[in-house]
Specification:
Order of helices and strands: HHEHHEEEEEHEEHHHHHHHHH
Structural class: mainly alpha
Helix content: 55-70%
Largest sheet: 3 strands, mixed
Shape: globular
Low-confidence stretches: 1-24
Radius of gyration: 21 Å
Mean pLDDT: 90
Number of helices: 14
């Protein structure tokens, strides 16, 4: 799951912290700044990695593929032509950042954190997993249901100056299946096109729409039949996961909005969790030949994990409809999205949800 974190943009926001009375949060911003700087210091131009005899052949092949995708993003998807994803870093770890999300016991509404210049978002990112886990425990002690999940990449929204600060390719995702690598690159670049403060669902749904449109075109026009087949198997499981979890997300929302008392809601919640896990076990057995890639998600599923799913999917059909209305013209589509991003949130959502 790709996602934007506060990491790099904290370089911009950090200077505003004390001016806005937030000096007590300086430690959080410090880890964000230090974490992002460590990544960009480790990054080197892709051409340098390709010329280095010590670079493993498999890594060279993936880097070459990534640059074809990057060129495709500019030429065909009209995404920004800049230094992003023209450098590569091996972080020697499995994730770029770890996001912490939290929700109440009887609600899927995510806790939000607000930052100078950035607005409010429904997650808090850490470059160190132990720090993320420690903060998650603090939230649990306060009564929140919490989920900590790894993020392979993030976007600094193209706001930082110079090529050196540009978002790099990372070992955390460079060996993804071809279609998934394309999706991630197209998704993160989309965050540089339009960003609406205080509206995570808008931002992530837009980027998800771009990644789906772009990866479908890449696979159809540029990928081998073998890559398309492999990705179809991969994506079919993801679609099954999305269908199952979004159905149960709706059921949980209906339960929490019902007139049952809290005790009754707790009983209903336990029953829904058990039913969801049983349906997953059947899905894994009957359709996935035992594929276990989602086991950890279902093992730790809670309100926070269910709540974050909406951010990446809720408005995607609306953006896809807008793209069709714009005649499949990316330039017109992005202009419309930028216009929507500039509107007040209520107006933005009303227009995006209006009938075609």
């Amino acid at each position: 799951m790709a996602g934007w974190s506060l990491a790099g943009t904290a370089l911009l926001a950090g200077a505003a912290i004390c001016l806005t009375g937030g000096c007590s949060t300086i430690g959080y911003y410090a880890q964000a700044v230090d974490g992002h700087l460590a990544i960009v210091r480790a990054a080197q131009p892709v051409d340098r990695w390709l010329a280095d005899p010590a670079t493993p052949p498999a890594v060279k092949q993936r880097l070459e593929l990534s640059q074809r995708m990057r060129d495709f993003a500019v030429a065909e998807l009209k995404e920004p032509d800049n230094a992003s994803y023209r450098r590569y870093a091996d972080l020697k770890r499995s994730a770029a950042v770890w996001n912490v999300v939290a929700a109440p016991e009887l609600s899927l509404t995510l806790k939000t954190w607000c930052y100078p210049l950035l607005g409010c978002v429904g997650y808090r990112g850490y470059f160190d997993q132990h720090a993320a886990d420690a903060y998650a425990q603090t939230l649990r002690d306060e009564g929140w249901e919490v989920s900590v999940y790894p993020v392979p990449a993030y976007s600094t929204l193209g706001k930082l100056p110079g090529d050196w600060f540009a978002d790099p390719l990372l070992n955390t995702f460079i060996d993804y299946p071809e279609g998934e690598l394309a999706r991630l690159i197209f998704h993160e670049l989309a965050h540089q096109i339009a960003y609406a403060p205080d509206d995570t669902v808008f931002n992530e749904s837009f980027a998800t729409a771009v990644e789906r449109l772009g990866s479908a075109r890449w696979l159809a026009e540029r990928a081998t039949p073998q890559a398309r087949a492999a990705y179809e198997r991969y994506d079919a499981r993801r679609r099954d996961f999305r269908t199952l979890t979004m159905d149960y997300r709706r059921r949980f929302e209906e339960l929490y909005a019902s007139d049952r008392d809290d005790a009754g809601k707790r009983v209903g919640k336990a029953a829904l969790m058990a039913a969801m896990r049983a349906d997953y076990a059947a899905l894994k057995r009957d359709r996935w030949s035992g594929y276990s890639g989602y086991d950890a998600w279902f093992e730790h599923a809670n309100n926070a994990a269910l709540g974050v799913l909406a951010a990446y999917n809720e408005l995607v059909p609306r953006f896809e409809r807008l793209f069709e209305r714009d005649g499949g013209d990316y330039t017109r589509f992005y202009a419309d999205v930028k216009r929507l991003a500039a509107l007040p949130k209520v107006e933005r959502r009303a227009e995006l949800n209006s009938p075609p």
